[in-house]
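Good day; I would like, with your permission, to put a structural problem before you. What I wish to show you is a protein chain and, alongside it, a tokenised description of its three-dimensional fold. Please examine both parts with care and let me know of anything in them that strikes you as inconsistent. Thank you for your consideration; the sequence and its tokens are set out here:

***
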Amino acid sequence: MLSVSESVDLQAPADAVWKTLGDFGGAQRYLDVVERCELVHHDGSIERVLHLKGGGSARERLVLSSDDDRALRYTMVESPLPVADYVSTMRVDPLGPQRCRVTWAATFDAHGGSDEEAREAVSGIYRVGLEGLRQLHAAG
């Protein structure tokens, strides 16, 4: 099992950042590779379909969302990424009244590529998403 963890410290209140991340259907707000995101109900679960810029899509299933912990966990159902058995957690921790740390982490197996290719694919998306959050919350 492989793992990746990326984090960023933001000059924004934890609750404001959680409002963005806690919206499971709002990934296009901070993840530049997503053109649009739609929520669907499937077998009693909530899933999001990420329609990617340039074509293609990914489907993810919400496993846990906790406003108290400012955390959510999801699994990958379908994806162009070279991974399998993917479980990801996003968390917002306050560092003060106007600062917080966002951590995005996952465990997965490489599938269709090397361990390093899988790690870099996931880590690269996380870095883009965290930078998108930084830009979004710097403006607001």
Remarks:
- The mean pLDDT is 95.
- The chain has two helices and seven strands.
